[in-house]
Amino acid sequence: MAVALLPLTEAHVADLERLAADPDVQRFTRVPSPPPAGFARAWYEAYERGRIEGTREAFAVVDDDGRAFLGATVLPRIDRQSRTTEIGYVVAAEFRGRGIATEALREVARWAFAELEALRLELLISVENDASKRVAARSGFVREGVLRSAYVKPGLREDTEIWSRLTTDPEP
Asked: How many domains does the chain have?
């Protein structure tokens, strides 16, 4: 399925609320479980500040005509000095299993290499999230190892795999 990335805007806050309510999103991302009231708006505003400061970025993943919100992809850490960027992605439950996450990750990786001049992209994936690991592999990322008992969010420490892709790696 073809996807497009649009800068996340205030118009996407309701879509983010729906994503944050998903138990799988709460389980495998930094979204708190349960999300506090106003979480989606605060999350959006934090990414908007990060966009202005050049330290974060967020995109809505939409269908190729831009009408349907399919998910989001984020860059929660942009380190311009080391030219390293962390990436995260999530797809709404009703659209999973269609290759959307793979297309979105490939697209945001191309964007980060071109626009940020990143040399290294990183993914942090729960060792229990097999679907996300398949997306990473199909998108040209390489598993580097496991961060044992890594801090994920309040109340959750778990083993987390680190995957990377370098600008010198072949395009998937």
From this structure: 1
Q: Which H helix or E strand runs over 22?
A: none
End-to-end CA distance of the chain: 16
Q: What is the block-wise mean pLDDT of the chain (172 residues), using blocks of 10 residues?
A: 93 96 94 94 96 97 91 98 98 96 97 98 97 98 97 91 97 90
Alpha helix (H) residue ranges in the chain: 13-20, 23-28, 39-53, 100-115, 130-138
What lies within 8 Å, CB to CB, of 150 at 6+ separation is: 124, 157, 158, 159, 160
3-state secondary structure of 136: helix
Residue range of the domain that includes 72: 3-122
Question: Is residue 162 assigned to a domain?
Answer: no
The model's pTM: 0.95
For residue 64, give the CATH number of its domain.
3.40.630.30
State residue 158 phi and psi, 5-degree precision.
-155, 165
